[in-house]
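Subject: design request, 372 residues
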């Protein structure tokens, strides 16, 4: 659908009426107010339309291959999709939309997953939305290097620069020229850091892993790999087929399974999971102390949850192999209904709403599997 709606030459016209008809989340943007200092052009829908038109007018975007144009057009169309949920007006009339980049990433991921978009397309769009404001004020951030490297690994900094440029050109604000200068400086910085048009290279996967876990780490330092065992950490929504994957691909290894712990303790999926997690961590520590490779089988749908596993593993000198499994929504729900103890649909919905696909900054290796 994005390909059908993406502007093409020679006119490069944005079919806004067709876009509004196609997506309810575009219609939700209409009437949502914005800060008049930085968005004097009008509501979120007006700004989004103007940003799409600005993108379509950029020679650098028009020169891209068709697939790249479609992906970037989708990112611009979705970049402020969470503003209807994040916009607040305080007692003084001040309008804010704090957190809309973060929530926009989650919203876009779910919409694109439900729409059947390929994983690579989906994740690049989600990463661009998450970071779309970074070039505006990047040179003021002490963590700029890590952010620029992360974007290069998850999406593309050249695309991020074009997205930020369209965002600024698609609004009416007094400091637009200054912000555009900042975007240009961000592009120059990324070029100097060898991460503008390609992923930032690291000496090894261990060096990359250590760089993103430590402060003030030299990205070119070839860190010695002193890991003593490998732990496979699974990530995936209920019903995606994690148990079957373990049986087929990690036979014979011990498994720390939150589902098994939950059953043993008699805790429902809707109940307090703290006791379940604590018991699973005790099992994991036993394997780690003994130096035994094992599988950690849990949903682990957020980066924060995965970090609880990764942090414990690395504290014992373990190597982390993340395996991210997914399936189309209809397949996933059908499998879940066929389980002896199905997870309630409401629980799956809440998990899907905060789902963060694992990325290469989190582990030594990440394998993405379409388990349809």
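Subject: RE: design request

Done. Sequence follows.
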């Amino acid at each position: 659908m994005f390909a059908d709606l993406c502007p093409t030459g020679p006119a490069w016209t944005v079919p806004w009426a067709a876009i509004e008809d196609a997506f309810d989340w575009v219609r939700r943007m209409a009437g949502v107010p914005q800060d008049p200092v930085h968005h004097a052009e009008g509501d979120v829908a007006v700004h989004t339309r103007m940003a799409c038109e600005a993108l379509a007018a950029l020679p650098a975007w028009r020169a891209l291959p068709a697939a790249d144009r479609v992906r970037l057009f989708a990112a611009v169309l979705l970049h402020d999709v969470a503003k209807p949920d994040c916009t607040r007006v305080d007692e003084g009339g001040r309008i804010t939309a704090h957190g809309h980049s973060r929530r926009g990433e989650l919203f876009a991921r779910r919409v694109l997953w439900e729409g059947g978009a390929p994983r690579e397309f989906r994740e690049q769009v989600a990463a661009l939305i998450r970071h779309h404001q970074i070039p505006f004020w990047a040179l003021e951030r002490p963590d700029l290097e890590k952010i620029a490297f992360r974007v290069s690994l998850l999406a593309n900094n050249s695309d991020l620069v074009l997205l930020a440029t369209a965002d600024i050109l698609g609004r009416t604000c007094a400091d637009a020229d200054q912000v555009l200068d900042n975007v240009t400086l961000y592009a120059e910085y990324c070029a100097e850091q060898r991460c503008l048009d390609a992923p930032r290279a690291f000496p090894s996967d261990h060096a990359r892993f250590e760089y993103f876990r430590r402060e003030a780490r030299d990205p070119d330092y070839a860190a010695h790999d002193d890991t003593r065992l490998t732990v496979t950490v699974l990530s995936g929504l209920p019903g995606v087929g994690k148990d079957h994957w373990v049986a087929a691909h990690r036979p014979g290894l011990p498994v720390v399974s939150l589902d098994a712990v939950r059953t043993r303790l008699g805790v429902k999926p809707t109940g307090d999971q703290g006791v379940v997690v604590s018991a699973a961590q005790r099992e994991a520590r036993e394997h780690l102390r003994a130096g035994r490779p094992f599988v950690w089988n849990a949903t682990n749908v957020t980066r924060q949850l995965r970090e609880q596993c990764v942090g414990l593993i690395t504290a014992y000198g373990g190597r982390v192999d993340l395996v991210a499994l997914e399936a189309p929504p209809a397949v996933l729900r059908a499998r879940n209904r066929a389980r002896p103890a199905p997870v309630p649909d409401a629980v799956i919905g809440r998990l899907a709403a905060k789902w963060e696909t694992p990325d290469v900054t989190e582990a030594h290796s990440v394998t993405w599997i379409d388990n349809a």
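The mean pLDDT is 95.
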